[in-house]
Write a structure and sequence with these properties.
The protein has 558 residues and is mainly beta. It is built from five helices and 31 strands. A hairpin with a 2-residue loop joins strand 23 and strand 24. InterPro entries: PhoX (IPR008557).
Length: 558
């Protein structure tokens, strides 16, 4: 089914029914040591935007941390041949196979607003820290040769409070340049701040849409005293914090106790082309989950959303993480995400465990219909919950019994579907077994979906984890039961006129080598993915030095 050419160009999987014309992989960029590929996006004229996130593995810009880069590839040529992996002594910089990488800014640069690039400012305007983790890039033109670039900054490690920068661009002699003196960080206080702002997309109607990749599966632990005391160390580091992302951090941002139901949604920026009249809208109707990004179909109503989490990170006592769910949102009206119906995917695997061959049939379970105003009103009912309300073994938030009532059709309202979307999806029979479900992108009738690893909850030998208790039944492989492939993979679906996904097939699957690393001439641990204007797929890595020498950006040609 798959043939590999272990060189800069490698052949990839051929789908059933597709001709034997060879498709190939071309390595088009490599990151600085320890940096992840993020921010890959394009504009109407085909420019390629690209960031180097957390170089040196440093999520906070401080001390001796190398600064994260935000920029683009000037005069990128998709027809150019691939590039080799740089030798070890030449891995300090971002390198490309064609054109030139132009840096718009580095974490910590001074902005004309008096702020710093990547700075996370609390609701009162005080600097909390400088993020070294730029992710989403969204290009918004304001004229033939002027634009703004919006970039989401993904907090700083366990500190989830995030930021959005707005950089003024102008094009001279065909090359975009940044004017940091006319640039700023946005005030996110109107939406209670952003939690772990990850990837996103520019909507077909021209607005940036950013995803809150909020890692918080068990809301009952949000107001646990251990999460809010002076010891801010994670349990794995000898501390007493229960959760990886610190609830205390969002409370520090607000200056008061934060509400978990205010985080984990898609955030849209309206009036994005204006100089100072940006309007942020948090779309509660898109559901509360670990949003990675979204793919908006040509009807401007159907949206596919990926839920990025992994059960391997779960606290052994409190069941704080699970595998992710593949979600669909269908808006009531084209171009308006404020109201619609939320669905979750039920997967049915082919009769093989081979990750190179196993496709999945998909049916959709309707979770509920809602609108921003109603769902935000439900969320607001929990604004006054504090640490003092915590009782071990109980919850100050939506209980599992309330979720079960929604699944049984006996709940008084649909709040469970939108405030506890992943738990509700699992309770209603959807598949919550994806291990770090990452990018999703679309072009024409194709939808591509990336999973960073096909392991743990996707591994047939790992077992099935109960969504409520966290107990693992090792005799049950679950809906996704593959031979584990820790290097991950990208799937593809072909949709019809209704834009409904009913099946996905393996498209580009990584491969573990004899040393437990990933084969160097195949993408490893795909994260950001995007299609160019002609439909060519780009795959960005979040592999790290244990898997690949450097993270790379790949182009699928054929």
């Amino acid at each position: 089914m798959k043939k590999y050419l272990f060189a800069t160009v490698a052949a990839i999987a051929l789908l059933p029914g597709v001709s034997r014309a060879e498709m190939s992989l071309v390595r088009i960029a490599t990151m600085p040591d320890g940096a992840e590929v993020t921010g890959i996006s394009t504009n109407a004229i085909g420019d390629l935007f690209l960031n180097a996130q957390h170089p040196g593995g440093k999520n906070t810009f401080k001390d001796d941390a190398p600064a994260a880069l935000v920029g683009y590839v000037a005069r990128f040529d998709a027809a150019s041949p691939g590039m080799p992996i740089p030798p070890e002594d030449q891995r300090a910089d971002l390198q490309v196979n064609s054109g030139q990488y132009v840096t718009f800014g580095k974490a910590g640069d001074a902005l004309g607003s008096g702020e710093v690039f990547g700075g996370v400012y609390d609701a009162a305007g005080a600097l909390m820290y400088v993020s070294n983790a730029p992710d989403f890039n969204g290009f918004v033109p304001t004229g033939a040769n002027t634009a703004y670039l919006y970039t989401g900054w993904e907090g700083a490690g366990r500190d989830g409070a995030s930021a959005i920068s707005k950089v003024a661009l102008s094009r001279r002699d065909g090359v975009w340049q940044a004017d940091l003196s006319q640039s700023k960080m946005l005030d996110l206080s109107s939406v209670h701040g952003g939690a772990v702002l990850c990837s996103g997309t520019i909507t077909p109607w021209g607005t940036p849409l950013l995803a809150e990749e909020y890692f918080f599966y068990n809301s009952a632990t949000w107001n646990h005293p251990d999460n809010h005391d002076e010891d801010e160390r994670a349990g794995f580091a000898g501390g007493n914090d229960i959760n990886y992302i610190k609830p205390k951090n969002m409370s520090q941002y607000l200056g008061k106790m934060a509400n978990p139901y205010r985080y984990g949604y898609m955030i849209e920026i309206n009036n994005a082309a204006s100089a100072d009249d940006e309007q942020l809208v948090k779309h509660y109707a898109t559901g509360r989950l670990s949003h990675e990004t979204a793919a908006i179909m040509p009807d401007n109503r159907t949206i596919y959303m990926t839920d990025d989490d992994s059960a391997v990170y779960s606290h052994e006592t409190y069941n704080t993480a699970s595998g992710g769910v593949f979600f669909k949102f269908v808006a009531d009206h084209p171009g308006d995400l404020s109201a619609g119906t939320l669905y979750a995917a039920k997967m049915m695997q082919d009769d093989t465990a081979d990750p190179d061959k196993a496709g999945f049939d998909i049916t959709w379970i309707e979770l509920g219909h809602g609108n921003n105003a109603q769902i935000e009103a439900w969320a607001a009912e929990y604004d006054d919950v504090t640490v003092a309300d915590y009782v071990d073994g109980q919850t100050s938030y939506l209980s599992d019994d309330a979720i079960r009532a929604h699944a049984a059709g006996t709940a008084p309202d649909a709040r469970a579907a939108f405030l506890e979307s992943r738990r509700t999806a699992a309770a209603m029979g959807a598949t919550n077994e994806w291990d770090k479900l990452e990018g999703v992108t679309t072009h024409g009738d194709k939808v591509y979906i990336a999973a960073s690893a096909l392991a743990f909850t996707m591994d047939k030998s790992w077992g099935h984890k109960d969504w409520s208790t966290g107990e693992i039944d090792t005799s049950n492989g679950g809906d996704i039961a593959l031979n584990a492939e820790g290097c991950g993979g990208t799937y593809v679906s072909t949709v019809g006129a209704d834009y409904n996904i009913t099946r996905i097939e393996p498209y580009v699957i990584g491969q573990t080598d004899a040393e437990g690393r990933c084969v160097a001439d195949l993408p490893a641990n795909p994260d950001n993915i995007v299609t160019l204007n002609d439909g060519t797929l780009l795959i960005g890595e979040d592999a790290g030095p244990k898997r690949h020498d450097v993270d790379m950006l790949w182009m699928v040609k054929g």
